Amino acid sequence: MTVFEATLHIPPFNVRLRSPFAAVRQHIQTFYPQAQRAVGEACFVDFDLQILPGRGVRRFWRPQARFLLDGVEPFFPLPAAQAAPMFEWGMNWCVAQRPLGWLVMHGAVLARDGAAIVMPGFPGAGKSTLCASLAFLEGWRLLSDELTVLDPVDGLLVPHPRPISLKNASINVVSAFPGARLGPIYRDTRKGTVTHAASPLESQLRASERARAAWVVFPRFEAGASLQVEPLSRVEAFTLISEQSFNGERMGAPGFEALCAMFDGVACYELVYGSTQDGIAGVRQIYAS
Fold this sequence. Notes:
The chain is of the alpha+beta class. It has helices spanning 22-31, 83-97, 127-137, 169-175, 201-205, 234-242, 248-251, 253-263, 276-288; strands spanning 4-10, 13-19, 47-53, 64-69, 78-79, 103-112, 115-120, 141-144, 147-150, 164-167, 186-189, 192-197, 212-221, 228-231, 267-273.
């Protein structure tokens, strides 16, 4: 069985990946065509990843895919048909668990003219759909769909543009966006039906440009709801976003102080919307205020 091996620069990280799954190779070629480093090019590797077949009878009977970081398997295998999205889910876990120098939170980040909007990722809030609509329909630069990475040294948000994760009803919505390029659809996963939309090329090419947080917005999609844009106090917003931090406790005082400093310069809102257009209108209202 041929093993795909590549060293990828997925800003700001270098990733070594090995896998015999053809779907993993296709996923990388589809979503990371600019990322592969030249063979033999020396670089420090942040994550050494393998996506391997299951052991024993699981190689043939109900085949599985295993995710390994530095030779260690941190979570249970998944069906082999999910080997490609397993790369994305595993990368999320790596970034959330490994880079202790940065504060990492669950949330989408997009920027315009150096000012960033942070949208914390509560389940079912419609964050990814709204993130995709801002990237493809409104021209916002995608820093990340899933992970808000804050550098305590300069107080800036670090871009980590990767494919936008979509699930269930959002797949049909985003597939209609001009310029949106979706990959294969995976059904019956733990998250339901999922796929990914390639991050805009401009966002990838500008991945070295950090941004300063200007708005923290808590989006909530409710079918049929009228548009509501309500200011939140910084104290309430700070408490809510702290719940979405993956490594805040491990970072201790530096992480707490960095988050406090970020909130010194942001406006905070709750955004309730019942359609993509209402969500966009709400963000426009926030941006103009």
